[in-house]
Specification:
This is DUF3110 domain-containing protein. It is built from 43 helices and 6 strands. By secondary structure, the chain is mainly alpha-helical. α20 runs antiparallel to α21, α26 packs antiparallel against α27 and α39 packs parallel to α41. The protein starts with a helix and ends with a helix. About 2% of the residues have low confidence.
Length: 1000
């Protein structure tokens, strides 16, 4: 490209960048001779320079223009995809792509090849990209990593390599092309091809049995014939064996059965192809061998085959896990009929050792009994596997004992017993390390490190913070041995465990810990794909859902949606029939996520949450799983506190009943932490309670929160967040308290909020920090002690701190509530210009109204409309105020909040009164009066009668006016409202003078 033409391109680019919007087509038309590939390349180069210089808007504009020109000039190899939603400038700033071998010299980007053309997929959603990556893994392709990249960087990359790109919007389903082809035209293997493969593989296996051949030869042959190892080959093998064994000489049949058994052992460990198919083939091989191996004629071979088959059933993917575990137990028990302690002590111990793990995972039967049986199996194995005779096996069985004792932490046993069991587990791990060191037994050493990580993560004794750090160190130690290339399954388990540990981590910033948790859990998906590791895949999704639920980075709305999708993915594996316990746990997590969901209708989300908890309670019943049952009762109570549908007062009574149900199971001695959580929730219910005496309800709430704090204070470091939240709740009650001295109550509220803020920092707990600042602002706004002006400034400052977290986009509901509080503070502000303060207040009220409407919280929106209406009317903006009031009334008519409806009708009447619409004012006053009388709301009745009396006087109905005003005075005397009595007295005096004049 010559210098002169390059300069011409640059001049044209400058013209385009500096022209008025809409002039670009005219400029391009005038410079048609420059519209070619060279211009596109220079545009891309200039865009890259601008991007590096931080001029990103210009860079994106140029890249978009380059893309449009390239398409118009036909420079792309293929037409834009139907998946693409538009031009480059319509894409998000960040997209997600799939990369292979990240961080290595062989790092590369995933492309789709269609007719020799390459396209790169640009995903809007990280979740969609991860799903596509998983689908690739299910086809036995290497699983790529999902990486976030700037859209312009990818566009430059595509242009430089001549690749096209496709933008995949969030929620758009896209399937790898090769999968579509495979699904449409599955390759069918002919029986003769199976037979040739079987003959060859059995020949190679027979050589192994004679110690004349390396087993790798079998694996190499199988790897070259992966298509034969499909879902049908196992049945073909079994049918072949059934036919041939009946025709063979017994000695030849025995030899062939031994070869088939050997092949079953080999294919069980084969690392390639479909793990599901390999395990099925292994089972069929063992079943084929058992045609020859009868317990009476070949007892040892029969027992060996049963033991091996038990091991395969224990990890089988096909079929129901419940049934597979029962089959595994049955096979082990069959083996033990021959492998007795006296006759075959070593094999007896081996079966007991293997059976212990199966009982740990058993779904049928009582969980506690299963764990007890698992521990008994280990102890039986250790009668043979002594440290002196079999040190390695002794150590390995101690690892199984660790797993069994760890499972007791999930049982409904008292905290002290859990504490003891975990310490026992640590002792068993340390015993194992007497034998296992990293030099001699690296794999076993790494396994113990992994177990120690799990034990310390659940440890109760010691400082929680240090235990989690120890846990992370142990998991990282295990990864010194477990590499993805050599031990992929164990490596993935290490990634999963690290993800779980970072979820629990206390040290460092919570924001960063959660990002690390998400990273490690996503890493596990490189190995854990749905088809080969469904349970591990589902477990990773459960923890990923928990991480996104708590996530601080990104939009809270999006994080909660991702959390829901993660839990729903896990339910694809853990259904209610086969995995009731896991199903219930997921439903519990889903319920909590829906309870906090921002997207969608709030009322419906809460109903979804209730339904999820009810689903969990179908599994967690009071008789069999009382502690889990009690936990879900508390969760239900928290939803009923917030519930929008049905009657509010009744919902709160249901919440109390749920808490009281929980307290049938937990008390401060047996389950102190569960008891404290129940007390905290019960306090929230009583604070919000409508029925009963309000003052008494608040006293009960204080008692509940103080009870919770007694427990949390004992282990404040371990339960710092719970302690802080109980302090906040206690502060809320003192803020609202009726009994006691008002000034003292406000001081206690402020002290509680400040104490909580010592632990709750914005980086670690942004939502809780914002809630506390909002509540602290309200406490200062209502404070009696100290200078009123200073208190209001502190209130405004606290609200503004809260709004740094509660933004309109992320938290419209909380943003609206804080804007409302800020408006109230500005309305009463002493410092600053009064008119400016009122202007700020009105703006905040309008913000609050917008936030509530966006969040779908129509009742609060109506309340805000009522407030705004009153403010506008007070400022003389009658018609604007009337519009807000009438809009609120439309909403209140859809709900059963009759008091708010009456207040709104009264304000509409008052506004018409001011405008001079006397007839309408009279109608609305009388409507409001009817509601107040029905509600027996004396204050409302008094104000209605007083206002209606003044209106009657204005329009000439003197006697009626006098009657209404006297009735209002009587009620105000009952209410000790001297101010209103004085106002009416003035009117009555005027009225008396009018009557005197009329008499004269």
């Amino acid at each position: 490209m010559n210098e002169q033409r390059t300069q011409a391109y640059l001049n044209l680019i400058n013209q385009l960048l500096s022209c008025n919007n809409g002039d670009e087509p005219r400029i391009l038309q005038k410079n048609q001779e420059l519209l070619d590939r060279g211009l596109v390349e220079v545009m891309v180069a200039v865009a890259q320079q601008y991007g590096n210089a931080g001029r990103e808007n210009e860079a994106r504009w140029l890249l978009n223009m380059a893309q449009q020109l390239a398409e118009a000039l036909g420079l792309f190899d293929s037409e834009p995809s139907s998946i693409s939603t538009g031009t480059f400038d319509q894409m998000p700033y960040t997209v997600y792509v799939l990369l292979y071998n990240v961080g290595t010299d062989n790092e590369g980007i995933h492309t789709i090849s269609v007719d020799d053309n390459h396209k790169i997929l640009l995903f809007e959603s990280q979740e969609d990209a991860a799903t596509f990556a998983r689908q690739l893994g299910e086809q036995n392709f290497p699983v790529p990593s999902v990486e976030a990249m700037k859209a312009e960087e990818i566009f430059l990359f595509c242009h430089q390599l001549g690749h096209n790109w496709e933008f995949v919007p969030k929620g758009k389903t896209i399937t790898p092309p090769s999968q579509r082809v495979e699904n449409e035209t599955p390759k069918k293997i002919k029986p003769e091809d199976y037979q040739v493969f079987l003959d060859n593989v059995l020949q190679l296996s027979s050589l192994i049995d004679k110690n004349r051949f390396n087993p790798e030869a079998v694996y190499t042959f199988c790897q070259n014939n992966l298509d034969k190892l499909d879902e049908n080959f196992g049945e073909f093998l079994y049918q072949w064996a059934t036919n041939i064994f009946s025709n063979l000489h017994p000695q030849k049949a025995q030899f062939t059965a031994a070869v088939v058994l050997m092949f079953g052992n080999l294919i069980n460990e084969f690392p390639f192809g479909s793990l599901k198919n390999n395990l099925e083939i292994s089972i069929k091989a063992y079943q084929a061998a058992l045609i020859v191996y009868h317990p009476k004629t070949f007892p040892v071979y029969w027992a060996m085959t049963q033991m091996n088959m038990g091991n395969v059933y224990a990890k089988r993917i096909e079929g129901k896990k419940t049934e597979n575990i029962e089959k595994a137990i049955n096979s082990f028990q069959e083996a033990l009929k021959i492998y007795t302690l006296d006759a075959f002590p070593y094999e007896y111990a081996r079966v007991q050792h293997n059976m212990s793990n199966v009982y740990i995972e058993r779904i049928k039967g009582d969980k506690a009994e299963n764990i007890k049986t698992a521990i008994d199996c280990c102890k039986k194995a250790l009668k043979v596997r002594t440290f002196e005779a079999f040190p390695r096996e002794w150590a390995n069985t101690h690892i199984h004992l660790v797993n069994a004792y760890l499972q007791t932490t999930n049982l409904e046993i008292i905290e002290q017993k859990k504490k003891e069991n975990i310490e026992i587990a640590i002792g068993y791990c340390e015993n194992s390390l007497i034998v296992y060191n990293i030099e001699s037994f690296p794999k076993e050493w790494a396994k113990v490190q992994n177990n120690l990580g799990n034990v310390y993560l659940q440890r109760i004794k010691g400082e929680k913070e240090e235990n989690v750090e120890q846990s992370i160190n142990y998991f990282l130690e295990s990864l010194r041995v477990y590499k993805i290339n050599t031990f992929p399954n164990e490596w993935a388990r290490g990634q999963f465990n690290l993800g779980g540990a970072y979820l629990e981590r206390i040290k460092e910033k919570k924001r960063e810990n959660l990002e690390k948790a998400i990273f490690y859990l996503r890493e596990s998906f490189k190995v854990y794909i749905y088809n080969n590791f469904p349970y591990e895949w589902a477990d990773s999704y459960i923890n990923l859902g928990k991480a996104y639920f708590e996530r601080i980075e990104g939009k809270k709305t999006d994080n909660l949606e991702i959390a829901i999708s993660c839990f729903e993915e896990a339910l694809k594996v853990y259904n209610v029939d086969n995995f009731p316990d896991s199903f219930a746990k997921i439903q519990k997590n889903l319920g909590t996520t829906y309870r906090n969901r921002i997207e969608g209708d709030k009322a419906k989300n809460l109903e979804f949450a209730i339904d999820c908890y009810q689903q969990a309670l179908k599994i967690y019943d009071f008789k069999n799983l009382p502690l889990n049952w009690a936990g879900v009762q508390v969760d239900l109570a928290e939803v009923y506190i917030d519930r929008i549908e049905e009657n509010k007062a009744e919902n709160l009574e249901i919440a109390i009943a749920c808490c009281q149900a929980s307290l049938q199971v937990v008390n401060s001695d047996n389950f102190p932490i569960h008891w404290a959580k129940t007390q905290n929730t019960l306090g929230n219910v009583y604070q919000a309670r409508i029925k009963g005496d309000k003052a008494e309800n608040l006293e009960i709430a204080i008692t509940c929160f103080e009870a919770a704090l007694k427990i949390y204070t004992i282990e404040r470091e371990r339960f710092a967040h719970e302690w802080a939240m109980s302090q906040m709740n206690l502060g809320n009650v003192y803020h609202d308290r009726i009994k006691g001295e008002k000034a003292e109550n406000q001081e206690k509220a402020i002290d509680c909020f400040k104490a909580s803020l010592e632990l709750v920092k914005p980086d670690d707990f942004p939502l809780e920090f914002a809630m506390l600042q909002n509540n602290l602002g309200s406490a200062y706004r209502n404070r009696i002690r100290g200078e009123k002006a200073d208190n209001l400034e502190k209130a405004i400052s606290a609200y503004q701190e809260a709004l740094k977290v509660f933004t309109f986009d992320a938290f419209p509901q909380q943003w609206a509530a804080t804007q409302n509080n800020l408006a109230n503070a500005y309305s009463n502000r002493i410092r600053g210009d009064k008119a400016e303060n009122i202007k700020q207040a009105v703006m905040c009220y309008q913000n609050a109204l917008q936030g509530y409407e966006t969040a779908g919280d129509f009742l609060n929106a109506a309340e805000m409309g009522l407030t705004l209406g009153k403010v506008k009317v007070d400022r003389g903006e009658w018609y604007q105020g009337l519009a807000y009031l009438e809009k609120s009334l439309k909403i209140y008519r859809q709900f059963d909040d009759l008091k708010s409806r009456a207040d709104t009708i009264y304000q509409i009447a008052h506004t018409h009164h001011l405008i001079g619409n006397h007839e309408k004012a009279s109608i609305y006053y009388r409507d409001a009066l009817r509601f107040y009388e029905y509600l027996k709301h004396d204050r409302g009745v008094a104000f209605c009668k007083a206002s209606l009396g003044r209106l009657m006087l204005q329009i000439g109905f003197v006697e009626k006016a006098e009657e209404l005003l006297k009735e209002a005075t009587f009620i105000f005397k009952e209410l000790n409202n001297e101010q209103e009595i004085a106002k009416i007295a003035e009117v009555l005096n005027c009225l008396a003078k009018i009557k005197e004049k009329q008499a004269v």
